[in-house]
Amino acid sequence: MYILLDIKKDCSLVIPISNPEKLGGLKTVNFFLVKQEKSLSLIDAGYNTDSHWEALNLALNQNGLVLQDLTEIILTHHHIDHVGLVDRIVDAHPIPVYASPLSIPRLKRDKDFMELRVEFFEKLYYEMGCGETGEKQIAYLKKALLRNKGKAMRAEITAITDNEFLGFTILEVPGHSPDQLAFLDQQRKQLFAGDLLIEHISSNAIVEPDENGSRLPTISQQIDSLNKCAAFHIDSVFPGHGAVIQDPKALIHKRLERIEEKSELILRYIQSGHSTANEIAQVLYKNTYNEQFSLVMSEIIGHLDYLEAKKKVTMKKLQSICHYHVTV
Ligand SMILES: [Zn+2]
């Protein structure tokens, strides 16, 4: 038996937004209760706020359940809006927490990895020609590293290493984050996809280092992850934000097309003489460059890597700065 708790129409559990202005375009933060014969799993765990805690308890109570009925927490990826309540739940009711092995150093804020990550961005922003804005961002990251030192997840995390887990087929779907997993119920044709696919906005591919400090090819990963899901027959995608997706194939097609269009646009900027990632970011994202610097740079760098992989551009370093030119 398998029951998706029907709290709000199609979603098993949609947590109302406590502070929409902070969420920007995300609309809602979704996390899901999935009841099976012998388990009651929580997929993702929202923000660590009182309103999300209350919403979780309300959803349980409205379905004749209590927190103590939860049997485990499963995480799609390590981002702060997906893992917030984990420690609060586990403190009140000790249950296992499962995530990708790649989530663990990030959630545990492993000292070596966190330092390597800051070094990675320091070098990256320098090489991409970001100058003072890049330096400011690094100063912010270094401060955040100190400030968040004690904010590691306390709960023990068990790595999901099997292809099948709790009745779900586990799909690795990196791109938005290196550790992102999607949980597929092949029988019900339902996919819990984290932030892989969101109906009302394109999910960002966010540039990150791997465990050894090498840059991940995030746009290529995003394309592969979307294609991976398109290969399955899926009726509904339960996303991390916004509405349930009822025609995922059409949306995946749209997102893949948009990626190609964006790549072509960036190629045209290079053609017209903008050769560094920073120059392209400044002309393409005039209004958001300062405010959303790291996301804007992620987008441009991801696409430059993608164009380079497709041999449409070549990169040459001039005084340690990466310059891109259209391949002739
Ligand atoms: Zn995310």
Task: Describe this entry's structure for a reader.
The chain has 2 domains: about 200 residues, Metallo-beta-lactamase, Chain A (4-Layer Sandwich), CATH 3.60.15; about 110 residues, no CATH class. Helices cover about 40% and strands about 20% of the residues. It contains 11 helices and 15 strands. The strands form 4 sheets. A 6-stranded mixed beta sheet has the order 1-4-5-6-7-8, with no helix packed on it. The chain has a 5-stranded mixed beta sheet with strand order 9-10-11-12-13. Strand 4 and strand 5 form a beta hairpin. Helix 6 runs antiparallel to helix 7 and helix 10 packs across helix 11. The N terminus is likely disordered. The site of zinc ion (ZN) has 5 residues, from loops.
Strand content: 15-25%
Bound molecules: zinc ion
Mean pLDDT: 91
Strand order across the largest sheet: 1-4-5-6-7-8
CATH topology of the largest domain: the name is Metallo-beta-lactamase, Chain A
The CATH superfamily of the largest domain is known as Ribonuclease Z/Hydroxyacylglutathione hydrolase-like
Pfam family, one: Lactamase_B
Organism: Neobacillus citreus
Protein name: MBL fold metallo-hydrolase
Domain Metallo-beta-lactamase: 28-241
